[in-house]
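Example 3.2
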Amino acid sequence: MPRTRKLSLAAVAAGALALTASTTLSVPVAYGHGYTNSPISRAKLCANTTVKNCGAIQWEPQSTEGPKGFPGAGPADGKLCSAGLQQFDELNDQRGGAWPATQLTSGANYAFKWHLTAQHATTDFKYYVTKQGWNQGAALSRSALDLTPFLTVPMGGARPAADITHNGRLPSRSGRHMILAVWTIADTGNAFYQCSDVQFASSISKTGTDFGF
C-alpha cells in the first residue's frame, strides 16, 4: 500500500477516535447513587425482598434518579417515587396501603439515614411529608405534599459520606403518611428521589422501626 494511503487511513482513524472521545466527554454522567435506610424507603424494602413483585428496583434501589428542581420541576405527579423512570413504576403503586410503614412519633427528633453507593457533589437534601387528609389511594403527587420541606440539609457542593445521618424534628402529623426525600446533585441536572411510608403516633416506645439495611 502506498505511504500516502497509509497516512490517510491513520488520519481517519485518529479523527474517529477523537470524535468518539469528544462525544463521550460531552455527555453528563451522575456518579452518585443512594437510598434511605431510615425511614426505610420503598426501594430498599424491595431490595431486601421484604416486599415482593417490585420489578427492576429490587436490584438497584439506589437508582431512582430524575430531573432536579422539585417541586417546581422534577418528575411528574404520580411518578415521584420512581423518579419518573418507567422501569421502577412499581414504586408508585400504593398497593392499597400494604407497604410496611415505619413507626414515628409526631413532632419528635429523628435521625434520617442514607446509604450512598457512590458519593457526588451535593446541593442539598430535602425532606417533604404528605398533608393531613391526603388521598392515600392515589399515587403520590405534589398536591398531596406539603411543598415546604420540613428539613433541609445544605451541602454547598460538598461530597457526603457513604453513610450519612441528618438529625431533624418530625412534623406534627397523625396516622399514615409518606415522606419524600430528595437528594439534589450539584453538578448535573439530576436528583435522587426516595419514598418512605410512615405511621405517626402521639407516643410510642420507639421513634422508628426499620425493616433492615
